[in-house]
Amino acid sequence: MASTIKPAKDLNAVRALIKKHKKNDRLFSVIGIFVIAALAIALLVLFLDLVIDGYPKMNLEFFSNFPSRKAEGAGILSAWVGSALVLTVTFFVAVPMGVAAGIYLEEYAKKGWFSDLIEINVANLAGVPSIIYGLLALGLFVYEFGLGTSILTAGLTLSLLMLPIVIVSTREAIRAIPVHIREAAYAVGATKWQVTLHHVLQYAMGGVLTGIIIGMARAIGETAPVITIGALTFIAFLPPAPVSEVMPFINFNWLDAGFTVLPIQMFNWISRPEHAFHINAAATGAVIIILTLLMNGLAIRLRYSIRKKIKW
Amino acid sequence: MAQKKIISPGLKKNIRRNFLERLIELSLMLSGLAAVLITFGIVYILVTESLPFFDAVSLKEFLTSTVWTPLFERKNYGILPLVSGTITITGIALLVAIPLGTITAVYLSEFATHKVREIVKPILELLVGVPTVVFGYFALLLVTPLLQKIYPDLPTFNMLGPGIVMGIMIVPYIASVAEDAMRAVPMAMREGSYAMGATRFQTAVTVVMPAALSGIIAAYILAVSRGIGETMIVAIAAGQQPNFTFNPVESAATITAYIVSVALGDLEHGGIGYQSIFAAGMVLFLMTLSLNILGQWTRKKFTERY
After folding, report:
1. Are B104 and A33 a contacting pair at CB < 8 A?
2. Chain B contacts of A121, Cβ < 8 Å?
3. How far apart are CA A253 and CA A239, in angstroms?
4. What is the pLDDT of residues A166-177, one digit of tens each?
5. A45-59, A97-111, B197-211: which has the minimum mean pLDDT?
């Protein structure tokens, strides 16, 4: 710094210099606000563009019709049902495994090569492009395990993507819990698992939930890996219902069924040259983005309220 | 415990309890192990499924030929066109994302009040949450038509539009990692600078940014990796024809777009098309893996310093 300010004989020169630097300071403030405003506007335009373009299609029929060759009558019934079923599988695989892995790394694992190995792998998995998970699923689940292109395969594929998110958020939530909570529980004779289940997990629940919601929001919009496993883009039937009127009331035939999901349906409609299909794509996009924005918004709220509420 | 001859009812319970504890620990460990297994699974599948491909195609042709047409009558297997498309689009994205991301990070870390930060950070997080297929729609049906008004010769499928949109998508990643790095710089260094009469901007540029440099560079490296692996924006808006060019106003396929275009067609298990997407995936995986390792290493080096 000293080198830029030469010993000034003239006081006015120093004043001019200070003025110049203060001007730069203000200038950067303006640029910063401008850039951030531009980002916020980009998000807004993105959202409004979809909602306005898709508005003509936003009615009940759009949700209750199958896709069709004619753009006017086409709907997203098979897509939203497919998304819901795939995400159900993803939820029941990724959440228990992710939370368990997070607990293991924070509460059980001793520092050493083994926990380091897991840690490095989790960090790397978070950076692997989603389409690589699609290739893994194509080679492993579809052909090696012979699961075919089914709801089960898609659910497992997306749970691979969600796993690192759940693990990382579980670990962060657990790490924030002070040791004396655990010591108090140990002091009255609780086992390690009782401490973890009854105390650590209770306090970590908010943070874990935040991670689960963010992970699910990401899974809803994930397209590339589901295309890679060979999901069809045109499905005009529903998978067998998971609940039936006769015994045993619940069946798992739907796991084997062919399917499509919301983002693939949207992708398919974008790729058509006719403008009418682009309207359908916009409406589907609006549904996806409203779902993901709501879920992300909920997660941000949740995290904010936890941070405000908890004072150890 | 077990050697004692008389086992009291209390101790008996303890054995059961200890056994259960062990069982739980084991199942938790297996879940942790899954992360390792997934990595091995990725490497295993990519290697075994692309090995037959490299039996048929020499590594030299794969890495030096400039034509990629595995599904045509006249087959050519040069990965370069896909790599050039990937590099060009990622390059455009970085031209957008690095300045915007860095300015956002500096502003949030050095200029913004607590209140402003509490408002801006959620907006950035929402931007991260936007599905990429939606960004693709945005690139093809909003940004490209706008660009065509400025530059009428621009084809419908081009690398400029998706590159710009990808840049907007990457800004929050750069901003959040770089901001973390700058906020980790000790306050005392800033105070020293302020005490010398420096303004906030001077402090940010001459003290904070050099101190946080490796953290900021890590943010850039992770952003490159993110751009290379991005799929839907480019598959929708950049076209799916491999094209050996670095010209942003032409259409070209990326590695990821190629994989998508093959997967959308009839995929014959074990056919050359099937094998070629694993070979392409292998290249993609090696590129992103090395960038991620480099990025994490740079970031770690930075956190060790403070």
Report:
1. no
2. 35-36, 38-39
3. 8
4. 999 999 999 989
5. A45-59
Please indicate, yes or no, whether residues A47 and A123 belong to a single structural domain of this protein.
Answer: no
Nearest CB among B24, B107, B142 relative to A32 is that of B107
How many domains are contained in chain B?
Answer: 2
Percentage above 70 pLDDT, chain B: 94
Residue B271 phi/psi, 5° resolution?
A: -70, 170
Q: Do B126 and A293 touch (CB under 8 A)?
A: yes
Instruction: Give the HSE-up count for residue A299: Cα atoms under 13 Å, Cβ half-sphere.
Output: 27
- The DSSP result for chain A, as a single string, is -TTTS---S-HHHHHHHHHHHHHHHHHHHHHHHHHHHHHHHHHHHHHHHHHHHHGGG-SHHHHHSPP-SSTTT---HHHHHHHHHHHHHHHHHHHHHHHHHHHIIIIIPPTTHHHHHHHHHHHHHHHS-HHHHHHHHIIIIIIIS---SSHHHHHHHHHHHHHHHHHHHHHHHHHTS-HHHHHHHHHTT--HHHHIIIIIHHHHHHHHHHHHHHHHHHHHH--HHHHHTT--S---S-PPPSB-SSTTSB--GGGGS----HHHHHHHHHTSSSHHHHHHHHHHHHHHHHHHHHHHHHHHHHHHHHHHH---
- Name the domain count of chain A: 2
Residue B48 lies in domain: 9-56
Q: Which residue of B has its CA nearest to A217?
A: B129
Question: Domain range holding A32?
Answer: 11-55
CATH value at residue A151: 1.10.3720.10
**pLDDT, mean over chain A:** 87
Q: Over the stretch A32-73, which tens digit does the pLDDT of each residue have?
A: 999 999 999 988 998 898 899 888 888 878 888 888 777 777
Q: How far apart are CA A298 and CA A26, in angstroms?
A: 35
